[in-house]
Amino acid sequence: MSKLRPDLQIIADNVRPNARVLDIGCGDGALMAALRDQKQVDARGLEIDPTNVASAVSKGLSVVQGDADTDLSAYPDASFDYAILSQTLQTTHRPDQIVDELLRIGKQAFVSFPNFAHWRVRMSLLIGGRMPVTRLLPQTWYDTPNIHHVTIDDFRALVRNGELKQEGQWFLSGDKQTGRGLANLLAEHAVFLLRR
Amino acid sequence: MSEDARFGLDKKVRLLGPLPLDSGGELAPVDLAYETYGELNADASNAVLICHALTGDQYVASTHPVTGKDGWWTRMVGPGKPIDPERHFVICANVIGSCMGSSGPATVNPATEKPWGMDFPVLTIADMVRAQALLLDHLGIERLHAVIGGSMGGMQAISWTTLYPDRVKSAVIVASAARHSAQNIAFHEVGRQAIMADPRWRGGSYYADDDPPSSGLAVARMAAHITYLSEAGLTEKFGRRLQDRDSKTFGFDADFQVESYLRHQGISFVDRFDANSYLYITRAMDYFDLAEAHGGTLANAFKGSKTRFCLISFDTDWLYPTSESRTIVHALNAAGAAASFVELSSAFGHDSFLLANPEMNRIVDGFLKAGESV
Fold it and tell me: Contacts of residue B365 in chain A, CB cutoff 8 Å?
C-alpha cells in the first residue's frame, strides 16, 4: 500500500467505516482505494483527466470522467455519507456553489485546499512582487489550474456566511499536522469537515 | 466440459420458443448461431457475453467463414487479452434478424417453408436480448460475469442490465447510446431507401433466384461507413489523393482514393450480408430508446441496479458521441449505480472501438478483473 498524500490521509482517518463516499477530483483513485481496502467504504469518484480515470478504473474503482462544475447536478440529494473535494476547490468556476453541491449530495463534506495566505506565499508576493510559485502551488500564473486562490480565513468566512457547520479542521505544514494557532499564516494546507 | 456439444466454434441451436416480441407478435422456432471460447467453470460464474454491432456476427475471435478474415474483436478477445478464454467462458451469438445462421428474413418460415423475407417480424434490441437469454438458459448459465458490446452491441449490453438485472454482474458499453438520435435514424433511413430503391429488392422477395439487391446494399454500406469514420481520420488516410492515376479524369470513375475505398467497402459487404437483415437490424436500432419503457426517465431503468457499469466513448465519434454516454452516466449516477466512464482519444471516429487502443484494453481488463476478485 503506497503512502497517501497527507491531506488524503487525514480524510481517510476520519471517514466512518462502511460509509458511502463520493470523491470529487479523485485523481487516480488513491484515496478511494484506501477507503475501500481499509474501511470497506462504497466509494465513487469523479475526475476530469481521462488518464487518471483510466488508472482508477483499472484498479477496479467506479470513477466517472466529468467536471465538478457541470456534472454534480445528476447526483441525488443526500445520496452519499461524505462528499470529498481535495485540492480541487480552487480550480472550480464557482467554489461557493460547489460547496453547496457537496452538502446537497453528501450529508457531510471534506474539503481540502492549499492556503494562499501561508507566509511563504505572502513573502513571495510582498518581496518578489510576482505571483507566488511554491511547493504546493508550483505553476506559474498563466498555466495554473487554480483560478480561485483561497485562504483559510476566506474559507472560514464562506462557511460562516453559508451558515454551515464546521465539524473538523486540520492543518498541514511541511506534510505534518500543525496547530490551529495562526493557521492562516502558518499552514500550507487545510482540511475541513462540514455539515449543513 | 469441452466435450459438451453445446460449446465450441460454429454452433447452432434451434430453441422452440415462442419468443414473445415487443411488436406484439412472436417468433418460433428461434434459431441461434453462436460460438463459445474457453471453458465454463464449475459454478458457471465466468461467462462473458459479447454482443456484436449492426453488421457484426458470432465470429468475434475466429476466422470468418465468408471473408476468411480474423475475428472482428481479436484485439479484445484472446489469450492475454482483457477477455481471455484462459479464464473466461466467452459467448458470442449472431443476433436474431441477422444473416449468419440465426433466425432472420433469409431463414425459412416454417409456415410457408420459404424464406421469411418481409414477413419476418420487426424486431427490437430487447427482442435480440431476450433471444440471447434463451441461449444462456440452453447453455446452463444463470448469471453473466459480464456482458460487453460496442455500438449496437452496447445497446444490447445495457438492455441486458435492465431486462435481466439479476443475471448481469457487470456491463461494458462502448461507443453506444441509450437511444437512437434523429441523426442516427436519418442515416439509417438513407441506407434502407437505397436498398428498397434497387429494382432487384422486389419487396424483399429476392431469395428464390439468388439475385439480391446488391447495388442498393452497397450504397447503404458506403453511406453508413462514412458515419463510422471521422473527418480527421479520412483526411489522414486519404486526403485528396488520387487513386492509381496522376491526374483527374474529368469523369465519374473513382478518381479519389476515398471513393475507391468506399466502393470497395460497399462491394465486399454484399458478399457477406443480407439486404433484408440490414433493413430489420437498422429498424431495431432506430426503435431503441431505453428511457421510453421507464416513463421517459432513463435513471428509472437503473433503479436498485446491483450491476457494475463501465462506459467508454471516443472523442471523434460523432455517430454515438460522448454526450450520449454521458447521458447514461448521469442516469446511472442518479440511480446510485456503480458506474465508470471515460472518453478516450482516437482519430478514427465510431470505428475506434474495433481498432487497437491500449487504453481501452487497460480499462476493460482492470474493470473485469476487479469483478473477479470479489
Answer: 58
